[in-house]
Write a structure and sequence with these properties.
Rossmann fold, 201 residues
């Protein structure tokens, strides 16, 4: 059996990167340079970004992509964005709207893929309703959640990241079973876990 040359292998890697049109680690680091987040938070964030890119490469290509609440730079180049806050270094979102306000100003099945990374825990008590809108506008979604984070003050915890289990995520996502999922462990910092779902509707 003929093995591919290094040049052919490199060409294949380049083709995949072009097809997915995702950010690189260098672009991520450059875009987040102005952030007040410390090194550990940024390093851990890139860990789950890499997994999201892997999922996009595996299940794509996706033509029309929307990211909800992107950080400094969307995962997919030139995708639409949805936020009601403009952070330092960001451009105006495509949809300047609050996720809690239903309905969203988007047509049914307008997007092939919607990305929401570490977003759902922040829309207090509106996760189920918001997921109904997500299913309405999208054909597929990639979502990440803080997973089984322990509360530092369990008797009076107000941290929205704490105590999220598979049961919590299942309720938020209308018990839709993910086509693909993985658990990412932070390699530095607080050593937290994150659950990443790929869903199709």
């Amino acid at each position: 059996m003929r093995r591919g040359t290094k040049a052919e292998t490199f060409a294949k890697i380049q083709m995949v990167e072009t097809m997915s049109n995702c950010i690189t680690e260098q672009e991520f680091n450059e875009s987040s340079a102005h952030s007040e987040s410390n090194y550990y938070m940024l390093a851990d964030r890139w860990q789950y970004y890499k997994e999201v890119i892997r999922i996009i490469d595996k299940h794509g290509p996706f033509e029309n992509v929307l990211e909800l609440g992107p950080a400094w730079i969307p995962v997919v180049h030139d995708c639409d964005t949805f936020d009601n806050v403009v952070r330092q270094g960001q451009v105006e979102p495509t949809h300047n709207h609050n996720l809690k306000t239903i309905p969203w100003p988007i047509k049914d099945k307008q997007y092939d893929l919607v990305i929401a990374l570490q977003v759902w825990e922040h829309i207090y008590n509106n996760q189920i309703e918001a997921f109904g809108e997500l299913m309405r506008i999208a054909k597929a979604a990639i979502m990440s959640f803080p997973y089984e984070w322990q509360c530092r003050q369990p008797t009076n915890c107000t941290n929205c990241h704490c105590g999220i289990t598979r049961q919590t995520i299942s309720a938020w996502t209308h018990h839709v079973e993910p086509v693909d999922y993985t658990i990412i462990y932070d390699t530095v910092g607080m050593k937290h876990k994150r659950m990443i779902y790929y869903l199709e509707f």
